[in-house]
C-alpha cells in the first residue's frame, strides 16, 4: 500500500531553545526557570543541567546543514525569552536578536519555512521571582516580549505559535515535575488562566501588525484518554478527568469554544481551585487563529488500578507517557475528528510534534533505530487515513532533529533522528534520518 500525502504537504522537524541551544550564560542570556530547576537535587533524572545541550547557539549553521540534507520544508524552533530580554521585561539583548536573525536568514536562504514558538516552557527566572504565571502582570510581560519578537522577526517567520503545550505550566505548578517545581493545584489553575489570556492578547497584537504572510496559532498536545473497561465508572471518570480536568480540555474549550467546560468548572469550584476570571477574559482567549498545532504521541486507555503506577512512570519519563508497547497511535484518526467535530477547529491543522525516545546499549544500537521508524509509520498511516477522510492536516514535524535535553529525563531520553555525541557535539544521522529523507522526497512511503 502506498501512503501518498497531499501536494505541498509540509514535512519538518522540531526542536526548542532550552533543549538544544546551550550557551546558557553567554552573550547576556539570563537563567530560565529550567536552568534553576535543573540544579535542584532530584529534579532531573541524572542531575544533568541544560548549560550546553547540543550547543546550537554556536552550531546553528551545522544544524541548518542537517536540515538541508534531510530535505525538510520547514523547521520548528523556539525563541529563548532569557536570551532576548534577560530581565524578562525591559531591555532587549542585541546578541539575542542577532542569533535568531542569523538562524532565520540561514533557514530562508536554504528555502526552509521557519515555524517559531514564542514560549516553549523556559520563562526567565527573573520573572518567576516576581510570581511568574501566577502574577497577572504576566500578560503585560508576555505581550512586551511578543511585541519585540513581532517587530524584529514578524514577516520573516511564516508560522508563529504563542505557546507550546501549555500543560507544562500545569505540570510545573500543580505536580512539581517540571520547572518551577511547585505543587499547588489552585495556583496552577490561575497560572493556566493567565497563560490563556496572554495567548489571546498576543494574537490581538499580532493582528494589529498586519503582516501579509505570517500566520499565528497555538500548539496544544492531545493525549486522549479512553476508559480501558468501557462502562466501568472508575475508568470512565479517570478518562473524563484526564481529558477535561487535567488534560487537553483545559485548553481546547476556552480557546475554541470560548468557555471552560462544565465538568471542568464544576470540579474546580467544588475543590476551590477555580481561577479568578476577569470580565472579557474569555472573549480575549477565544481568538480566531490561522492554524492549530497538534502534538501527538499516543493515546491512553485508563485502568484506574494502574493509574498510580502510570503517574510514577510519567514523572520518570520527563512528562511523557511513551510507555510502549501500549501503543495506540491508531487513535489519531479519532483525535483529529474530535478536534474538528467537538472543538470546531476549522482551520488548517499541523502535527507540530511526534516522535519516540529510543534506547540502546551503545552508539551502534542507538543509530539503528528501527523502532522509531516503525512508530512513526504507525502514526503516518492513521494520519493519511484522516486526511483522506477530509481532515485538513497540512504538515507533520518529527520530534526531534537531534537528541537533546529531554526536560526531567535529562539527556537520557534520545528523541533525535540524529544521534548527538555530547562529548564532541557531533551529530550523526540515525537510520530514521535516512528513512525520513526518502519519505520527504517521495511525499509518502510504501508499506507492504
Ligand atoms: C513535548 C515537548 O513539546 C518537547 O519539548 C518534548 O521534548 C517532546 N514533547 C518529547 O517529550
Descriptive overview:
- There is one protein chain.
- The chain contains 18 helices and 14 strands.
- Helices cover 43% and strands 15% of the residues.
- The model has no long low-confidence stretch (mean pLDDT 96).
- The chain starts with a strand and ends with a strand.
- With 448 residues, it is α/β, with parallel strands linked by helices.
- The chain binds 1-deoxynojirimycin.
- The site of 1-deoxynojirimycin has 10 residues, from loops.
Key features of this structure:
448 residues; alpha/beta; 8-stranded parallel beta barrel; two-stranded antiparallel sheet; 14 strands; 43% helix; 15% strand; globular; binds 1-deoxynojirimycin; beta-glucosidase activity
Summarize the model shown.
The protein has 448 residues and is of the alpha/beta class.
Distance between the termini: 6 Å
Number of strands: 14
Which residues sit in consecutive blocks of at least 5 with pLDDT less than 50?
none
What proportion of the residues is helical, as a percent range?
40-55%
Strand content: 5-15%
Instruction: Specify the overall morphology.
Output: globular
The secondary structure category is alpha/beta
Main beta-sheet annotation: 8 strands, parallel, barrel
Secondary structure: elements and pairs:
Elements: E1 2-4, E2 10-14, H1 17-20, H2 33-37, H3 56-70, E3 74-78, H4 81-84, H5 94-109, E4 113-119, H6 125-128, H7 138-153, E5 159-164, H8 167-175, H9 185-208, E6 215-221, E7 225-227, H10 233-245, H11 249-257, H12 262-270, H13 281-285, E8 291-295, E9 300-302, H14 304-316, H15 332-341, E10 349-353, H16 363-367, H17 370-388, E11 393-399, E12 418-420, E13 427-429, H18 431-442, E14 444-446
Helix pairs in contact: 3-5, 7-9, 8-9, 15-17
Amino acid at each position: 500500500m502506498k501512503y501518498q500525502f497531499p501536494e505541498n504537504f509540509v514535512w519538518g522537524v522540531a526542536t526548542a531553545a532550552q533543549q538544544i541551544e546551550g550557551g546558557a550564560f553567554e552573550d547576556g542570556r539570563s537563567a530560565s526557570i529550567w536552568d534553576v530547576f535543573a540544579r535542584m537535587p532530584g529534579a532531573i533524572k541524572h542531575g544533568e543541567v541544560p548549560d550546553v545541550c547540543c550547543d546550537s547557539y554556536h552550531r546553528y549553521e551545522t544544524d541548518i546543514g542537517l536540515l538541508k540534507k534531510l530535505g525538510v520544508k520547514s523547521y520548528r524552533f523556539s525563541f529563548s525569552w532569557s536570551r532576548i530580554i534577560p530581565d524578562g521585561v525591559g531591555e532587549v539583548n542585541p546578541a539575542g536578536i542577532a542569533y535568531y536573525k542569523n538562524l532565520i536568514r540561514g533557514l530562508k536562504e536554504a528555502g526552509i519555512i521557519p515555524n517559531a514558538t514564542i514560549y516553549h516552557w523556559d520563562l526567565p527566572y527573573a520573572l518567576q521571582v516576581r510570581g511568574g504565571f501566577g502574577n497577572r502582570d504576566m500578560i503585560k510581560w508576555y505581550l512586551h516580549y511578543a511585541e519585540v519578537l513581532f517587530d524584529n522577526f514578524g514577516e520573516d517567520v511564516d508560522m508563529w505559535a504563542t505557546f507550546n503545550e501549555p500543560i507544562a505550566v500545569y505540570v510545573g505548578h500543580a505536580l512539581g515535575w517540571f520547572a518551577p517545581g511547585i505543587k499547588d493545584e489552585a495556583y496552577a489553575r490561575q497560572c493556566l488562566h493567565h497563560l490563556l489570556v496572554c495567548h489571546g492578547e498576543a494574537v490581538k497584537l499580532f493582528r494589529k501588525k498586519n503582516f501579509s504572510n505570517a500566520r499565528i496559532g497555538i500548539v496544544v498536545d492531545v493525549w486522549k484518554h479512553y476508559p480501558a473497561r468501557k462502562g466501568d465508572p472508575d475508568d470512565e471518570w479517570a478518562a473524563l478527568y484526564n481529558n477535561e480536568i487535567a488534560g487537553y480540555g483545559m485548553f481546547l474549550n476556552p480557546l475554541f469554544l470560548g468557555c471552560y467546560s462544565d465538568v471542568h468548572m464544576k470540579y474546580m469550584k467544588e475543590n476551590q481551585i477555580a481561577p479568578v476570571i476577569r470580565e472579557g477574559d474569555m472573549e480575549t482567549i477565544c481568538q480566531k487563529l490561522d492554524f492549530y498545532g497538534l502534538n501527538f504521541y499516543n493515546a491512553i486507555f485508563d485502568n484506574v488500578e494502574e493509574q498510580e503506577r502510570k503517574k510514577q512512570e510519567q514523572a520518570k519519563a520527563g512528562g511523557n507517557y511513551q510507555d510502549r508497547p501500549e501503543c495506540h497511535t491508531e487513535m489519531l484518526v479519532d483525535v483529529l475528528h474530535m478536534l474538528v467535530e467537538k472543538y470546531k477547529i476549522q482551520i488548517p491543522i499541523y502535527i507540530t510534534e511526534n516522535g519516540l525516545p529510543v534506547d540502546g546499549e551503545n552508539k551502534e544500537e542507538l543509530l539503528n533505530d528501527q523502532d522509531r521508524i516503525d512508530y512513526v509509520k504507525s502514526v503516518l498511516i492513521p494520519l493519511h487515513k484522516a486526511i483522506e477522510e477530509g481532515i485538513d492536516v497540512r504538515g507533520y514535524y518529527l520530534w526531534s532533529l537531534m537528541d537533546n535535553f529531554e526536560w526531567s529525563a535529562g539527556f537520557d531520553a534520545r528523541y533525535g533522528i540524529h544521534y548527538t555525541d555530547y562529548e564532541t557535539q557531533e551529530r550523526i544521522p540515525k537510520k530514521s534520518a535516512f528513512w525520513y529523507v526518502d519519505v520527504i522526497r517521495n511525499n509518502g512511503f510504501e508499506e507492504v
